[in-house]
Write a structure and sequence with these properties.
Layout: H1 4-16, H2 19-26, H3 30-44, E1 49-52, E2 55-58, H4 60-87, E3 93-98, H5 103-117, E4 122-127, H6 132-138, E5 143-149, E6 160-175, E7 188-189, E8 197-200, H7 206-217, E9 223-227, H8 231-239, E10 244-248, E11 259-265, E12 270-278, H9 285-303
Parallel strand pairs: 3-4, 3-5, 7-11, 8-9, 8-10
Antiparallel strand pairs: 1-2, 5-12, 6-10, 6-11, 6-12
Length: 328
């Protein structure tokens, strides 16, 4: 009879590309993984892997076996969920992967609420922007708090269930006079930023691609003076007056001094924050509790009065938006 743990190891090696990477992911030694794969090869009586430089390639037999392994492992999880549903209690451990930009405003409040409602549940939280959904399909994490920028095509892997949490627009962030989280509430036309020195995330990131796409749609190529995926660095550069930043609203602490924020009009840039779990026919009480806590935190986030009292409107201001702080 095939060993389920060995099938999972084969699945992980196939996804990671090497036995070493799979061992690191599984928290095992390379020798332990190699031994289990050798045992699996003995079980099926045919080679499953072959060396391909520094990586390994799957044989035809391995590809066939993996197709069955995916269904077998999904059925095992379905069975575990069914039993957990009968028990009707939240479990003791789970792993959440979340984006750094969501940590302060959504993840922290959600985990605090979970700790109060389900003290027996210990949630390991991985703050990362790398391949969260792949980790979910491999079983490394149980819930993902991810993002999808509206201009990008949907790319949800098979077997993943997605629950929308929050539409999160990017705001224009510039230096201000030291008043915390100040905003006059008037939108800024994106094309106004054509003359600005911008701090942008790398073009290889979803956010960087979304900003470049919107700027091109608005008819210009942005002048990128600084490149950083670190939102704290982006806000620091904006606060110092060295650059203009475009930052998701959820990632901005409204108590941050020295910055001014404004929404974008004409070509808004928006991401959808979502919670993702592995799809099962029966609801898993543990992952359901985590998703519910994330949804509540996101709902509270949208209901908070984020903007400071508006300045009186200047009748001489441009119809395209506030002129003084956005003149380059």
């Amino acid at each position: 009879m095939l060993d389920i743990r060995r099938l999972h190891m084969l699945q992980t090696v196939a996804a990671r590309g090497s036995i070493t990477a799979a061992a690191q992911s599984l928290g095992l030694s390379v020798g332990a993984v190699s031994q289990q794969l050798a045992a699996l090869r003995h079980d099926v009586g045919v080679d499953l892997l072959r060396r391909d430089g520094r990586t390994v390639a799957l044989t035809e037999a391995a590809r066939v076996l993996l197709g069955h392994a995916d269904r077998i492992l999904a059925a095992v999880e379905e069975a575990e969920c069914a039993v957990a549903a009968i028990k009707g209690t939240v479990g003791t451990t789970a792993t959440l992967a979340a984006l750094p930009s969501t940590a302060a405003r959504i993840v922290a409040p959600a985990l605090a609420a979970l700790g109060a409602d389900h003290p027996q549940l210990a949630v390991t939280c991985l703050i990362t922007d790398q391949a969260q959904l792949r980790e979910l399909t491999l079983g490394t994490v149980d819930v993902v708090l991810g993002q999808h920028y509206h201009h990008l095509p949907e790319a949800t892997p098979k077997g993943i269930a997605v629950s929308p949490l929050l539409d999160d627009p990017l705001l224009v962030v510039t230096a201000d006079d030291g008043v915390a989280g100040k905003s006059d509430g008037r939108p800024v036309c994106l094309r106004q930023l054509a003359t600005h020195h911008l701090v942008l995330p790398p073009a290889t990131t979803d956010c960087g691609q979304a900003i470049l796409h919107a700027c091109h749609q608005a008819g210009f190529t942005p002048t990128t003076r600084y490149v950083s995926a670190d939102i704290a660095a982006q806000l620091a550069l904006a606060r110092s007056g060295l650059a203009t930043a475009l930052v998701p609203r959820t990632a901005i602490d409204p108590a941050t001094p020295g910055i001014r924020t404004a929404p974008i009009e004409g070509h808004p840039i928006q991401r959808l924050l979502f919670a993702a779990t592995r799809h099962t026919e029966t609801t898993n009480p543990t992952t359901a509790a985590i998703v519910a806590a994330l949804r509540t935190a996101a709902r509270v986030r949208t209901s908070v009065a984020w903007l400071s009292p508006r300045r009186p409107k200047d009748s001489t201001a441009s119809a395209d938006g506030p002129a003084a702080p956005l003149d380059g």
